[in-house]
Each structure stands twice: as C-alpha cells, then as structure tokens.
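Problem statement: downstream parser choked on a complex file, so we are re-checking the raw output for the adenosine-5'-triphosphate run. The parser issue turned out to be on our end (a line-ending mismatch), but while we're here, posting the original submission so the record is complete.
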Amino acid sequence: MTDGAVEVRDVVVRYGATTAVDGVSLGVPRGRVLALLGHNGAGKTSLLQVCEGFRAADGGECRVLGLDPIADHDALMPRLGIMLQSGGVYPWATAGEILRLFASFSANPLSPDMLIDRLGLRKFERTRFRRLSGGEQQRLSLAIALVGRPELVFLDEPTAGMDTESRHTTWQLIEELRSDGVSVLLTTHLLDEAERLADDVVIMREGRVAATGTPAELTAAAGIDLLEVRADAGLQPQSTQFAAVEKTPGEYVITGNLDAAAIAEAIAWFAKAGAQVTAVNTRRRTLEDVYLALTADATRKAGAAR
Ligand SMILES: Nc1ncnc2c1ncn2[C@@H]1O[C@H](COP(=O)(O)OP(=O)(O)OP(=O)(O)O)[C@@H](O)[C@H]1O
C-alpha cells in the first residue's frame, strides 16, 4: 500500500447474509477530497465505518494515515475528524459546552468561537443538543469534527438536512480544509456537492465500485456531448446506437457515441414513435448524467433478473 491518507483494498463488510461492501478498493491521497457516491444501501456508510475503526472488515485491508484503524485506534483518533450523524454527543449539554469539551481534547484546537460564528451557531450556543433542529445538529457535528485540527476528516453526508446557506458555508469550510492540506473522505447523495468539492469520485453500486475517476474524467464521454429531448413521458427510446434515460417525466438524456448519424437516429426514433417533441438540446455530460446512467443500468439488470 502507498502512503495515502486512506488506503482500502478488497474490503468486505457483511451483516449476516447481506454483503454490504463487496471487495472495494480505493485510496484518498493526502490533501485531496474523495467523494463516495451511491444509492441508498450501496455500502458507503459501512465502508466509512471500517475506515473510522468503528467496524472490523470481514475481508481485505484498510490503512488510515498509514495505521490500522482498529489496532492503532488510540493513536489515530486525535488525528481524525469524524462527523457523527445525530446522536453520539451528550443530548442534555448545550451546543457551546459540547464544542468546548471536544476542543479541550485537542492540544492545539481551532477556536470554538470562530466555528460557532462560521457555522451560524451563535444563536444556539446555549441550546441543549436535543433541542437543536436536524440541520443545526449537523452544523454542530461538523464543528466537532473540525475543532481538533484533524489531518483527515470523514464526513458522512455532511450537508444532509442543511439549508442552502449552511450548505454553502460547509462547502467553503471543506475547500479551506483542502487548501490547508487536510484529506477528506465524504459520502453524499448530492451530485453538485461532489462535482464542486471532490478531486476524486468513487461511485458505489450494490457494495461494489461502479466507476471511479476525477469529475472531469467521469464526465468526459466518448462522444463528448449529450442529447436532451423533451417529449411525452414514459417512452423507452433505445437502439444499438444510443441509450436514453428518462431523467424526469418527459425529459430524456441520450448518451452514447453521439455523432451526427446517432443524433439523427435518436430524433427519428421519437418521430417513428409518434411522440410530441417540444425541445432538443445538446450539452456536455454532468456527474449527474454519469450517475443516472450507471444506476439506471443497475435497475435494468435487476429488472431483467426478476
Ligand atoms: N447494522 C446493520 N445490520 C444489518 N444490515 C445492515 C446494517 N447496516 C447496514 N446494513 C445493510 O447494509 C447495506 C449497506 O448499508 P449502508 O448503510 O452501508 O449503505 P449506504 O450506502 O450508506 O446507504 P445510505 O445512502 O442510505 O446511507 C444495506 O443493505 C443496509 O440495509
């Protein structure tokens, strides 16, 4: 294994008969942000828990800052920032007390007051944790993860439940962490979050790695552009030349090797189907298109297997 912040090789996590993580390998180089994407139940949190040392892998190997997350837990903890989902902190203590307590565990903490202000928590400083809203608890959890100046941060859906303003503040904080050389492994369902923050993206599907690369690599399709057609909902346009995903009802995104002949064939398909076409557009692929194409593929295969 190399000297990355996180090195995961062939990791397996099982819960009884369920294989949640099925031989995943990935690496977070030092000072980079890796976003783990995937549908509900894809295995993201289970993999994160192995890296955090909260769960032993049933197979494979994991090194975090060069150490074993379970055997070297005590040495690692002060160097890690872990954003806990709700719970895990003292529900009866106030936001300010909790953050100052976590700061006291560190030899050289960030200023709790600075984090309280940056994350818009000043108004809630004297509010007990259990009285905070979901989004406020998330912001406090992020502050707790960062207050010890960690070298590596694990963030499980960091902006889930946050309002737009808090989400943007969180993104700025994560960008600042990266500029300071901190490594970040985060999970998210937000494609724009991954596209904005991540140096590297790993898309998981059913416990396995479905795709990996930088956002630019993942969105650089063979035919570069992508065709969007607005027409009647519920159609299933496809041929050997192209594949379409109905992104929202009546909004078709067509990928493939889109030369002029393939575009003509796609449009002809709608004409032959007698569809009412209201708009045709070409544009570059986004991470969302890649993600949808991969998950639609999984859904098609699951349907075919039934
Ligand atoms: N403690 C557990 N006991 C049994 N099954 C579990 C347990 N934790 C997770 N699973 C199962 O393992 C699979 C992966 O779950 P995991 O939480 O890792 O996925 P995820 O990608 O983080 O999902 P989400 O996006 O919904 O958070 C799912 O099928 C889930 O039901």
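For whoever reads this later: The longest strand covers residues 18-28.
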